[in-house]
Structures are given as C-alpha cells and as structure tokens.
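Why does residue order matter? Because the sequence determines the fold. Keep that principle in mind as you read this record.
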Amino acid sequence: MLKIGIFGAGHLGKIHMQQWLEIKEIELVGFYDPDDTNAASAIAQYQVPRFTDVEQLIEAIDAVDIVSTTTAHFEIAKRCLLNGKHVFIEKPLAHTIEEARELVKLVREANVKCQVGHVERYNPAFLALGEQSLQPMFIEAHRLAQFNPRGTDVSVILDLMIHEIDIVLHLVKSPVRRISASGVAVLSETADIANARIEFDNGCVANLTSSRISLKKMRKLRLFQRDAYIGVDFLDKKTEIIRMKESGVPNGMLDFPIEMGNGEKRIISVQMPEVAPSNAIRMELAEFVDAVVNDKPVRVSVYDGFQAMDVAHQILKKMSMHNELHNV
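Structure:
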C-alpha cells in the first residue's frame, strides 16, 4: 500500500486530506505544517498524525503531496526528490522560474513520478469533450473571482490565470510566438485583474482575462475553430459544441437548418455532451497513485507545470513593461 505524506494543512491542504482519506489504495501516514492553528484544526477534523520533523515524515512515506504556500514548494519538493520520493505538487509548480527549471532537472534525475495539480484538467466539463477533435484558432477565457485575501501573496496570473494557461498550452500544439499583457493592482500589492494575449506559431490566438476583484464568479473557456464553436463552463459544469454541417437533414431537437447568402443550405448541429459528476481533486490524486503503482505517465507532468509557469512569467514581464511604459 502506497504511503502518502502531506505538506501543508491550510485551506487546500485540508481538502486534499479529506480526499486522500477516501482513496482506499493508500495509507495517509501524516502531515507537516509549522502553523499550530492549521495543524490543530486538521487533527480535530481528520485525526491524521502531525509530524514536526520534516525528515521524519519524508523517511516514512513513498510519495508526497505538497499543498504548502507556493514559496515553500521548491525546498520541500527538492528534499523529497533527493530522497527518491514521488511528488504531487500543487500549482504553480514553484515560486520562481529558476526553481521550476531546477525541479524539472531533479525529477528527471530521480526517475520518479511528479504530477502538478492543475486541477481543471480533471474538471468534468472539460473531460466531457472526450475524444473531440480540437484544433482551436481563437480562444477566449474568463476566470473571475470575488476578492479573498488568501492567495494574494502572488499575482492574479499565478493565482488564477495559470489554470487557463495550462489548458491553452495543452490544447494548442504549437510554440508561443508573441505575448502582450496588462494588469492592475487594485486591492493588493500585486495585479488583481489582468488580460493577456498569447499568439502561437500556427496562427492561434488566446485572449485570457482573470480577475480576483469581481462581484460574481465566472470560469468560462470558448474555443473557435473551422466550422465549430466549443464552450466549457468550468464553474457550472456545462459543455456545448456547435458545428456547421455541409449538408444533410437536422438530426435531433438541437439541430436546425440555415440558408447561406448564396442559397446554399447547411445544418447547425448543437451538442450538449453529458457531464458526468465527479470530484476533480480526488480524481487527480487517485490518478497520481495509479501512475506511481502501475508505472503510468501522469496527466500533468512536471514539464507541463514548468511550461505553464514559463508563460505565466512572460506575461508578468510583459505586464510590468506595459505598466512602466504607461506609468501605471
């Protein structure tokens, strides 16, 4: 049975703790958190042992779940990797791009499994796309959240937009050509609202907007490609696919004919794929266990996490240059 240890018992750490306890194939050995309040709360809720010595916890486990503050990711992951432990690490992969690059190297040298917690890859609305042929040429994404002081130690780019960055890089199989961005710090010391435009070598353009000072929540992704529009609502767990058919007859209640300007008739086909209820966090943790136990590839690799961070930091740099140019 795979022995798991958790680093971090804050808000997300407790959620992970709860999900680990639902996975039968593992033994949750214990957790480490230097904050006594966090630790006491976790023990009271889940009766999981607390370790006060980092090395003791690392020695007692086969794999680690790092849900600490972003600034602590690198040092914890490095210690675990040098001890040959498998690593699940929450997004973003690290605090700096240099740390992220080093982790990629350490994972390769340790020859262990490392998965990055980009949980939207497991969102049931995204999974509902299944084997759909996705070749987007324009992407629009909005991730809006209400203000919460938790997480404001990093820019909205690394806090929220990185979800969309990972999804976009996963969908667009082409190198990034150009990035432009702007953002404003409104309530915190780092940007709270930002927009980024990512252009790819294959001509695809992604327009991403993230805000943590909105009055309402929104997490929507819209993909436009030849003869198709695909919409994914990560928040309400809904997916729609609208395709243009060259000819034929309407097939189903959601299909309808249209007449083109030249008199040609086509069919607009509207599909609403079934979104199967699932717990995305439990699914990603269980899949990580399966990858370790059965030597399978992880869905979100350390290199995926590095690429998302690399683009995120390019966006931060472009945003800083834009603000300096306009004296924001």
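The longest helix spans residues 302-325.
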